[in-house]
Amino acid sequence: MASKSSLEAARLPTSFAQCPQFFLGQKSPALQPGPKLRELCFDGFAVLHSGVTKTPVFSAQRLNKRALGGVKRQRSDRFFADARLPRSERAELDDYKRSGYSRGHMAASGDMATEEAMAQSFSLANMVPQSIRHNSGAWSKIEQDTRKYVQRAVGDVYVVTGTVFGDGGERIGPNGVAVPSHLFKLVHDAQTGQTWVHWQANRDDERPSKPISYAELVRRTSVEWLPMRTR
Fold it and tell me: What letters, b where the CB count within 10 A reaches 16 and e where it falls short, cover 96-114?
């Protein structure tokens, strides 16, 4: 039987044109067209999902101190397969069982402003197979540090969290969910124009490191993640 969260998510929009508020300048990143890419809107974030890797390509959020932390920590860890995606293009709960990887959020559940948004963040369309120790260690610290910054910021902070895959990388589960080699979290303060990027290898021994520049992220990924940016 489908969960309540899954049924609710199935009614959410499937075009970024219907959730432009999550993108700086209301423009999504300028990725090259590819097969099986699907746009998904949620209450608190947006996801570009790949039916090839069966993971997000990226998630996008607009955070500010007025909304951040609005949910009491009665978190519901109910992961669910996203019914908006064809079965042949999505991860299922069984893919992660005994895989040795955790279900790692791209848009963090702790960022969500409402109970509904938090429940939606447990969609597998918002998950990647992530090193267990990395997810609970270095990556968790990066998420917490980002929230602390948002609490100090004057206005909106845009966050893009993305995946990077190596050639011939590992896949898990009956549906072959791809394991990213690296993850990144881009943080852009719309008030100050400051931008920085956390770039992390998806492995147990990874530690928080000095952020890289936006220009370096573009060089590594060949994608302009932000529009109309002042150099």
Answer: beebebbbbbbbbbbbbbe
| Cα–Cα distance for residue pair 231/216, rounded to 1 Å | 13
**Dist CA 209 CA 202 (whole Å):** 13
Type and span of the H or E element at 103: strand 101-105
Does domain 4-221 sit in CATH 3.40.50.150? Answer: no
- Tell me the catalytic residues: 105
**pLDDT computed for residue 11 by the predictor:** 76
CA distance 212 to 188: 13
Task: Provide the pairing of β-strand 157-164 with 55-63.
Answer: antiparallel
Residues 6 or more apart whose CB falls under 8 angstroms from that of 178 comprise 52, 53, 54, 55, 129, 165, 169, 170, 171
Q: What is the pLDDT of residues 141-190, one digit of tens each?
A: 999 999 999 999 999 999 999 999 988 889 999 999 999 999 999 999 99
Decide if 163 contacts 130 (C-beta within 8 A).
no
Q: Write down the domain spans for the chain.
A: 4-221
Written as six digits, the tokens of 28 are 């999504």
Q: Which residues of 142-181 are buried (b: 16+ CB within 10 A; e: fewer)?
A: bbeebbebbeebeebbbbbbbbbbeeeebebbebebbbbe
Kindly report, residue by residue over 99-153, the tens digit of the pLDDT.
Answer: 999 999 999 999 999 999 999 999 999 999 999 999 999 999 999 999 999 999 9
The answer to whether 9 and 80 are in contact (CB under 8 A) is yes
What does the mean pLDDT of the chain come to? 92
| The pLDDT value given to residue 14 | 81
Residue 166, token pair as written in the block: 């190596």
